[in-house]
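Ligand: adenine. Inputs:
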Amino acid sequence: MTWRASVLTLFPEMFPGPIGQSLAGRALEAGRWSLDTVQIRDFATDRHRTVDDTPFGGGAGMVLRPDIVDAASASVADDRPRVFLTPRGRPFVQADAMRLSAGPGVVLLCGRYEGVDQRVIDAGGWEEISIGDYVLSGGELAALVLLDACVRLLPGVMGAAESAEEESFSAGLLEYPHYTRPADWQGRLVPEVLLSGHHGAVAAWRRAEAERITRERRPDLWAAYQRNHGSVASRAAAP
Ligand code: ADE
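Predicted complex:
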């Protein structure tokens, strides 16, 4: 079965957008996944095609109506996980991409305006996911980010080289730096060990660099890594 993504949105023209290019785009053309969009506005019932209303309790902005979101989602209803993209959601991490890509696909709900009536989110079993601690003007870009992260993990989408790289991130460390020719570029030299031909030394250097960069840039990931790898990581951390 093809991995299927359905996106409920007021801006279907935004899809596939940038992920229609490159790796995910080629995989889409090759039929390794499929993408369909649902225009939420098509499920409005009045002649102005209204989809939102003012918030109960007052305040700025408009809220997407539950009956309209429900009708739109019923049009693609099946057993796929449902994800509502919102800055209020749990943070999206690589483990989510792995979990979602291992399933039959995903139904994504993109919010606009101030939000979506919470009752339809709760009733529909929507998982609320955020792609980061900043506020976008809608869920569409977040949906594209989520889709790209999932699609590249589908069988046959990535080459062998990228798969190996994937594992290194999943191990909980940021990646080591990369270098290619020329070995001397504007007086900046490639680290000697990478020219040595000693595979063991290269692997050790890369591991040490990955650990150093993770420690410096992401103390949160580093702490988790140390918990998971116990004494090995602690030894490597020693100055
Ligand atoms: N919609 C607006 N901002 C968002 C974010 N950071 N993540 C997911 N969906 C969003």
